[in-house]
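Researcher: Going back to the complex we discussed earlier. I've cleaned up the inputs and rechecked each line, so this should be the final set. Can you rerun the prediction on the complete assembly and write out the structure?
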Amino acid sequence: MVTITGVIPRPNTYTGLWSWLTTVDHKRIGALYGFSAFFFFIVGGIEAGIMRVQLATSDASLVSADWFNAMFTMHGTTMIFMVIMPFGATFFNFLVPLMIGARDVAFPRLNAFSYWTFLFGALLMHGGFLIGQVPDAGWFSYANLTAAPFSEGKGLDFWALSLQVLGVASLAAGFNFVVTIINMRAPGMSLMRMPVFVWMTLVTSILLVLAFPIITVALIELTADRQFGANFFNTAAGGDPILWQHLFWLFGHPEVYILILPAMGVVSEIIPTYSRKPLFGYPVVVFSGIVIAIMSWAVWSHHMFTVGLGPIANSVFTITTMLIAVPTGVKIFNWIGTMWQGSIDLRTPMLMAIGFVALFIVGGLSGVSHAVSPSDFQQQDTYYIVAHIHYVLFGGAIFGIFAGIYYWYPKITGKMYHETLGKVHFWLMFIGMNLTFFPMHYAGLNGMPRRIYTYAEGFGWEGMNLLATIGYFVIVISLLIFMHNFFRSLKKGEEAGHDPWDAPTLEWSISSPPPVYNFAEVPVVKGQDAYWITKREAAARGETVPAEPHVDPSTIHLPSPSYWPLVTAFGVVWIAGGLLIDVGWDYIRFPVSFIGGLITIIGVIGWSNEPPAEEHHEPAGHH
Amino acid sequence: MAHVDTTHAPAEHEPAAHPPAHEEETTTGISHRKLLMWVFLGSDCLFFGSLIATYMVYRGQSIVGPYPADIIDVPITTISTFVLLMSSFAMVMAVAAARNGNQKRLIQWLICTIILGGGFIGFQVYEFNLFRVEGLRYETNLFSSTFFTLTGFHGAHVTLGLFWLLCLTIIAWRNPAGRPSGEDVDIAGLYWHFVDIVWIVIFTLLYLIGGFDAGPDAGHAATQGWQWITGIFA
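Model: Rerun complete. Updated structure for the full complex:
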């Protein structure tokens, strides 16, 4: 066992490609998550663009019906599992240790493993494009569309196995953040003194840990059906396709809150900072988040009102779904109450946060309208639902994510973004978003079904669809401005200083970008909004608080970089990839997949026997 | 100014390489690794819960045989269940030995646990093979697909646990002084007991209650197990 280690010495470099491949620094892993998520945001956006151009006019023929199916499947899967979730992970990684006053997460190498597994899984999912085998059964892939006789080729296998790999990444990250937040808080940081973002991370991580095993089982059953001839969703053997819907949505509805709670946490940090007031009703915001998480387990069948579960089930799920709107509404009043009589500074992050609140209200209201099951019978599978999901996920999650990117840009890069360009980005994205998705309400109520690849003239859908397509391009322009602003400011941006916003949380007490060790001296927390307290006490003495001075990192014990997470993640994705091999002799996939298992085992053994690296640290101040 | 606090360094589990002088300081006092195991077990509950739910939903829904009543052998599995339960007892003794720092006893009880757990897996291999010979293959019917998936994943959990215990035994063998720590064995014990508890649920539902389900023509499936149990005392 021990002989395996030491083939390549444990890395100890902090610069160059090798240092990024072997990094266990939560800040670097956060950055990797961010760039990967943005890359897939572009990919998913292009897929959306193909659909929007196809639907701009009636009887269009840009793409075939099959290709359109592939596009909406990959657009949904990409945006949910490869964009919004990893953007959430970006913020968790970068911010949580800084906000709770820790040096890193509880399991730094497990954290690296999460990232690499996510990246490899996402690439494997898109690998289907290379051989023309793209999943095409929708992002929730209802049985028995997914059964082998109805979905030939490997597309659905790519979907099921890659999603399984992404699930492993999410579970590992979930375990890590639950332990980090519960166990690594600085002295004085009691649970009810934690920033709301950390609270929402904890709630999201617990949801991840509990919801992902269910989709894991559903995907195991689907894979068993397709690869090994099992009968889970085989109607000929008595299998019931509705089982898939129950398992999928029992995972899927907590998943919705996994997507939105991090954005709610981000907004709960930004609104107090730019209103110059503590968050209004902090405990209520925290408990609302917890109540949402608990109730998210009791609403899944509202995705299945038209299945025919009967009036009792539909009534119960109508009531629970309406109830879950209450804690969400409470949070909205908290944010508005925070702004009330505050001295509001309408910078880009604040604009994005207010945009989040406004658009999320629209999405929330349309959500309540299809919580009413009789009303949902009219709306099921129409563009009204498409409008709703995009108001909560684009208007909600994506606006929250951009709010966070602008807000923490000075902390992460040490530079200021360009304020005017940021505001132009916000207004164009806000207008484009509404132009794209608001008409879909009307198209949907006018009877336009989702997932149709084209429509005939004369239904009266052309105008709405053309507006939506124009809106799409407005969003594209706004994102080009964002990218320009992002990279321009990296080079030419002003030095941000450690605390440009006079913010309340601990990450602003250290220099920007943060040093590799985060805190030279572990902070002692005296109350909520810990850094505001520090600054207020200093101001009472007539002093200002400088950034924490740098120290020699070699005096602080940090976890050494490691390549074993990379090896293990590679083994995990090989297991899945092996089962996707499509050559004449079908059984070759089992031994090939088995090799992946061996790589994983070698990775785990190497991981657990790894010695710490030779002492070697970069000079102070270099990141 | 720069009072450098090195006690709060990010703690990471690095077994074998350097023995931990003391467990890291944590907010709750529970080590990171043990908390991780508890969170993982919570997650695993949902994993087995979903598999068990699938089995129960499809119970009695198979269209073709063999049905559970044709093939499930409750007495044999009762023995293997007893073997697994005894392995949990051996695990408790191993944890106690590790806490007391009794390395010799630790190795003995770990080996005992491995033999008993291995015996359980042996029974399962025998059972699976017997079922295959009697015509119950993975793709035969709903019963076979749900049964093999659920018990198979449980068997995989036990097998993983056996590898873990084997590693601990080797570490204990090579490091007579203090390795593995009581905490190391304790965490493995948590996992082992959890897998054991899951088996008790599976044994109850799939064997004692569902093991007597006959085909669709044989009357109401749910009453059959109860009749067998009352029959013993009649």
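Model: Worth noting: Chain A touches chain B through 59 residues (CB under 8 Å).
Researcher: Good, that matches what I expected from the previous run.
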